[in-house]
Amino acid sequence: MSTSGFFRWPAPLARMCTAPWGLGLRGKPALLAPGAAVTAVQMAGRRDRPALLPPLDESDLEEQFVKGHGPGGQATNKTSNCVVLKHIPSGIVVKCHQTRSVDQNRKLARIILQEKVDIFYNGENSLVYKEKREAEKKKQERKKRAKETLEKKKLLKELWESSKNVH
């Protein structure tokens, strides 16, 4: 299938991954699989360690190598090191061009696809959703502690100023 044939697949099932891990992937927009929430899908493929997800069957995958794009000039634009991976049963497509190495891009694409397939089939019971919920709870706890600390500081400041005015 040609690269133009790739773009005829349903657009809501694709996700472009073009930046290295450390360069702000969290801000990149992601196109979603039907029924998946934005935050969990955007988190897919962002962990340093692979999740304990069921392995993908290689016979269910369709893999293509297309020419890269973006910054890097000729070294990026003329080499076919961008990996397009499609999970045939679900129709989920992942395009990964995070590194210049085809082997690393293949591994990263499989990790991302594995997490997206988990979200697609398990929904709110997927590992990505659970980690997102845990992160939100921790963030809320930190906010609560920071707010309490700020209130204590204000109270101490008021007490100190009132004691200063009395003397």
Automatic annotation (TrEMBL):
Coarse class of the primary localization is mitochondrion
Q: Which InterPro entries match?
A: Mito_Transl_Release_Factor (IPR052405), Pep_chain_release_fac_I (IPR000352), Pep_chain_release_fac_I_sf (IPR045853)
Q: Does the keyword 4Fe-4S apply?
A: no
Q: Does the keyword Coiled coil apply?
A: yes
Q: Which Pfam families match?
A: RF-1 (PF00472)
Q: What UniProt keywords apply to this chain's record, in alphabetical order? A: Coiled coil, Mitochondrion, Transit peptide
Q: What subcellular locations does the record give? A: Mitochondrion
Q: Which residues cross the membrane?
A: none
Protein name per Swiss-Prot or TrEMBL: Prokaryotic-type class I peptide chain release factors domain-containing protein
**What is the organism of origin for this protein?**
Felis catus
Q: Give the classification, highest ranks.
A: Eukaryota, Metazoa, Chordata, Craniata, Vertebrata
